[in-house]
Write a structure and sequence with these properties.
Length: 348
């Protein structure tokens, strides 16, 4: 097994698209987004002869609590024998960049928990990305589990049937109230609507947001490839909800959403999501990914507020293995301490 710095974007993405799980955060384009933000991308590929057996995209995070290499929803491996060489090379690259640790959040179901990154990796105090993913399978058998389901969504009528009655009613009510939803023809120009609503949403809920630079770079890089959609929900001529959806490998991901409190009784977000699901069906996608929700019964969690909303559309839950850290220096102890306290204060 030979590990090297990847240089072929087409071969990288072609490998990703062959896999059961195809997280767009491991796409070549995502590395260019982080490059724009000043976070150097590191792309490693493991080859068995001439064939790629695994890939791993990481980026350098110059955080005050500890400079580190972050691996979002990776590595992606076709052969488990590729994992150890990838991790060893990742450690070498991290040390070259004076990183105190590596944070790995793989997109692996919990059934993969017997795969050991390395015996000296340890559970991260905090999660990096969503670890409880809610999704609607758009094709049978379920592309993520391989299971057939009697009510697996294939048509709009079947998906509506799988929803909670309240969700169906709210979609119809939004239509009756005169809400309209459009997929922007110019996401770069229309991003301003999303940013305004997102800032209001951030203030309302008090979460730590992605930066404006991140949103702009993501849309600039992915939209020209038809891999990003910006949706705008209007009521009485005013944009009252907006969302950014990512497309890749037959999957649509609801990545960012925002809305105003001014018309909080108008269920525009339900119609917006339904429009995006309908569009995914028309594209022939296999998965509609709502991203993170809170674990069942846990009320103190960053995604507790959106659980009811997302699960109302029907679907299934995919639990992922917890984020892991690989310490590289004693400086990691500072990060571990800070984040352990932060976790305690957040109550989860």
């Amino acid at each position: 097994m030979n590990v090297r710095i990847a240089t072929d974007a087409s071969a990288w993405d072609a490998f990703l698209l062959r896999q059961r799980f195809r997280p767009f955060l491991q796409s070549w384009t995502m590395g260019e987004v982080y490059r724009d933000l000043g976070q150097e991308p590191v792309r490693l590929e493991a080859r068995d002869g001439n064939a790629i057996s695994g890939i791993c995209f990481a980026h350098v995070v110059p955080a005050k609590r500890g400079r580190h290499l972050s691996v979002p929803y990776g590595p992606v491996i076709e052969n488990e024998s590729a994992l150890a060489p990838l991790i060893e090379s990742l450690k070498e690259e991290a040390r070259k960049r004076n990183c105190a640790f590596i944070r790995i959040s793989p997109f692996w179901p919990t059934e993969y928990s017997n795969i050991r990154i390395l015996e000296y990796s340890k559970p991260s105090p905090l999660h990096l990305l969503a670890e409880h993913v809610w999704y609607v399978p758009l094709k049978a058998p379920d592309p993520w589990t391989g299971e057939a389901q009697e009510n697996t969504a294939r048509t709009e009528e079947e998906i509506l049937k799988d929803m909670r009655p309240t969700a169906r009613n709210l979609i119809r009510r939004a239509q009756k109230e005169g809400v309209t939803v459009e997929r922007s023809a110019d996401p770069v120009a229309d991003l301003k609507h999303f940013l305004t609503l997102h800032e209001e949403t951030r203030r309302r809920h008090g979460f730590t947001p992605y930066s404006t630079a991140f949103f702009r770079s993501q849309v600039l890089h992915f939209a020209p490839r038809n891999e990003c959609s910006l949706y705008l929900a209007r009521y009485q001529g005013e944009v009252i909800a907006s969302s950014i959806h990512m497309h890749g490998g037959g999957e649509t991901s609801y990545h960012h959403g925002a809305s105003t409190q001014k018309y909080r009784n108008i269920p525009a977000s339900y119609l917006l999501q339904w429009t995006a699901i309908s569009d995914a069906l028309k594209r022939g996608d296999r998965i509609y990914n709502f991203w993170g929700i809170s674990p069942e019964g846990i009320t103190k969690h960053p995604f507790a507020g959106v659980r009811t909303f997302k699960t109302a559309f029907g679907g299934r839950l995919l639990d992922l293995v917890h984020c892991m850290d690989i310490p590289l220096s004693k400086k990691y102890l500072i990060t571990f301490g800070i984040e352990t306290v932060r976790k305690w204060r957040r109550g989860f």
